[in-house]
Amino acid sequence: xxxxxxxxxxxxxxxxxxxxxxxxxxxxxxxxxxxxxxxxxxxxxxxxxxxxxxxxxxxxxxxxxxxxxxxxxxxxxxxxxxxxxxxxxxxxxxxxxxxxxxxxxxxxxxxxxxxxxxxxxxxxxxxxxxxxxxxxxxxxxxxxxxxxxxxxxxxxxxxxxxxxxxxxxxxxxxxxxxxxxxxxxx
Length: 186
What we know:
Strand content: under 5%
Oligomer: single chain
Shape: elongated
Order of helices and strands: HHHHHHHHH
Number of strands: 0
């Protein structure tokens, strides 16, 4: 049974995770740990006592958001129209990337595949994405040559657009053009 934290230690943990979520979201996964501790109102020693490595902090911060990534496919599969399901799924993925730089970097990174919690969530998300894709292909509305691996490529491209474009909505235009190219026009 995990040892329960003292009330002040739990407050510090919650403050650190909240500050890290904000700062990673703004600056990416390489953001300053000193800034996270400062924004959380704790010292660096407290940060490192609770999260000995950057990887530990990142896993704690993003496990919940990666769960949302898994739920995207589950929600898409509830949509009766396979094309609308695929479009909604891809749109929401791109929105998540545009809203949170840290999550965007994590979604396209393989650096955390050795973290059991994140690797398990990623595997579940990939299974769901495959179902969304195969369903749209079976309905004849999505190109037959599109694969789950293509989603990773598209996400890396979208991450670049989000990070480098002066227009914060440039990803939306890219998505429209992309979807037009993926639609199987019969």
